[in-house]
């Protein structure tokens, strides 16, 4: 159905197609696009009440409940003036996801153009990453002073995270168009898939690489594939592993990739003398102290938390001080962040959404065989973006929120297109 969103939307369509490029520049432009889009959609829903009633799925009400929870948490927080922007305006992200799903109905070409933009972005970032790895400087003639890390075009060290978190959308669109694209585009796309694993490893972002590996395991388990696709996934795994070993630097003091990604990653897990909790480190000593600080904040705010994005303010209090590493901008893990900032109620939403995705996938993909590969892959984006057992960015960070909800818009479109509402 072609939804008549009553706007001059050629500009907004163009901006959304370029979203992967804008995400490289930082959160400002993508957030501006999302804000404008959500306002447009809200105005349209007010004008067309029947449209809202007939087309909003059950997931929308789940988001509404989460939204009211974080607003209530912010209102109840002693840091309200510092946190209200993160809660009151949070609705724009999930409104954007629904807006995007309807906009794709009106402009189906968005999918194909976005796929081409992702090819361009992944290709350019991968070339830039290899250039920086081998020469020490990237295409913008900058570099990172941190050994074993790659910066690329980004202001922060998030090259690996960008590639990993947009990889499911890139792969999903490839599966959507694989029977309609020419052989050169197929070869280019498959080459970029392989090189993505390599450059994410070389970027030095452990979490991004391990999430990408988890995503590959997820695909092997859930994806509906024939023998050719199964062989391709095995080939992708083997080539990626062999290529990573090929690119291991001989001089670890110079580039230090293997030490950071493999050796120190396992050394940071300290489980010696388990009878003494002081000797147990999860991910690293710094992470562990942040997690303990989060639990102390949670102990004083068990039900509704200290408020969204309040960790940076609460951890500065003397009663939560545990050492030099006890304060940061966020808890660096979704479980501990939601416990400290939104309490048991907010944490229950993470448990529910993660459990729901697993059960839904097992039932409708494995048992009923009713999900397309496109839908399965985009469910995987939710899985890795909300994966609770790894270090992570702040769930209330604008950039992180955009990355989470952007693929969800395509997933909503797909469910409505196949008349399978969540």
Name the descriptors.
single chain; 422 residues; mainly alpha; 2 strands
Total helix count? 18
Rg estimate, integer Å: 22 Å
Instruction: Please estimate the helix content.
Output: 55-70%
| Uncertain residue ranges | 250-255
Shape: globular
H and E order: HHHHHHHHHHHHHEEHHHHH
- Physical arrangement of strands within the biggest beta sheet: 1-2
Mean pLDDT: 84
Q: What is the number of strand segments?
A: 2
Major sheet: 2 strands, antiparallel
Q: Give the class from helix and strand content and strand pairing.
A: mainly alpha
The first-to-last residue Cα distance is 18 Å
Strand percent estimate: under 5%
Could you describe the 3D structure shown?
There is one protein chain. This protein is an all-alpha fold and 422 residues long. The protein has helices spanning 10-17, 19-25, 28-47, 49-55, 58-75, 80-88, 91-106, 109-135, 159-177, 183-202, 206-222, 227-246, 257-267, 285-300, 311-314, 334-367, 373-385, 398-417; strands spanning 270-271, 280-281. The protein has a two-stranded antiparallel sheet with strand order 1-2. α8 packs antiparallel against α9 (159-177). The longest helix has 34 residues, at 334-367. The radius of gyration is 22 Å and the shape is globular. The model is unreliable at 250-255 (pLDDT under 50).
């Amino acid at each position: 159905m072609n939804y008549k969103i009553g706007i001059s939307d050629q500009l907004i369509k163009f901006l959304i197609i370029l979203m992967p490029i804008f995400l490289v520049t930082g959160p400002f432009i993508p957030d501006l696009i999302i804000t404008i889009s959500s306002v447009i959609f809200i105005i349209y829903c007010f004008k067309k009440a029947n449209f809202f009633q007939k087309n909003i799925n059950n997931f929308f009400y789940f988001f509404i409940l989460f939204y009211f929870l974080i607003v209530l948490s912010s209102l109840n927080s002693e840091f309200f003036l510092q946190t209200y922007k993160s809660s009151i305006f949070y609705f724009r992200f999930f409104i954007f996801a629904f807006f995007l799903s309807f906009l794709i109905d009106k402009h189906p070409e968005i999918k194909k153009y976005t796929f081409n933009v992702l090819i361009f972005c992944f290709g350019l970032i991968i070339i830039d990453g290899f250039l920086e790895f081998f020469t020490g400087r990237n295409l913008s003639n900058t570099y990172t002073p941190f050994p074993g890390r790659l910066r690329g075009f980004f202001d922060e060290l998030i090259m690996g995270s960008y590639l990993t978190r947009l990889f499911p959308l890139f792969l999903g669109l490839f599966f959507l168009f694989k029977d309609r694209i020419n052989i050169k585009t197929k070869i280019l796309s498959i080459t970029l898939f392989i090189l993505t694993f390599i450059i994410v490893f070389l970027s030095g972002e452990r979490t991004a690489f391990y999430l990408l590996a988890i995503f590959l395991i997820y695909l092997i388990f859930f994806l509906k594939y024939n023998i050719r696709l199964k062989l391709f996934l095995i080939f992708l795994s083997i080539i990626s592993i062999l290529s990573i070993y090929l690119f291991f630097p001989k001089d670890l003091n110079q580039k230090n990739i293997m030490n950071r990604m493999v050796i120190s990653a396992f050394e940071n897990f300290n489980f010696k003398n388990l009878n003494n909790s002081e000797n147990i480190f999860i991910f690293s000593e710094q992470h562990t102290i942040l997690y303990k600080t989060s639990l102390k904040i949670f102990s004083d705010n068990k039900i509704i938390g200290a408020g969204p994005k309040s960790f940076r303010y609460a951890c500065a209090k003397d009663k939560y001080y545990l050492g030099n590493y006890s304060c940061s901008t966020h808890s660096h893990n979704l479980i501990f962040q939601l416990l400290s900032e939104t309490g048991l109620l907010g944490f229950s939403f993470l448990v529910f959404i993660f459990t729901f995705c697993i059960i839904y996938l097992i039932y409708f993909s494995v048992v009923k065989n009713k999900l397309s590969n496109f839908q399965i892959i985009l469910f995987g984006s939710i899985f890795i973006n909300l994966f609770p057992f790894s270090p992570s960015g702040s769930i209330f960070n604008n950039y992180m929120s955009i990355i989470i909800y952007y693929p969800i818009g395509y997933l909503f479109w797909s469910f409505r297109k196949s008349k399978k509402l969540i």
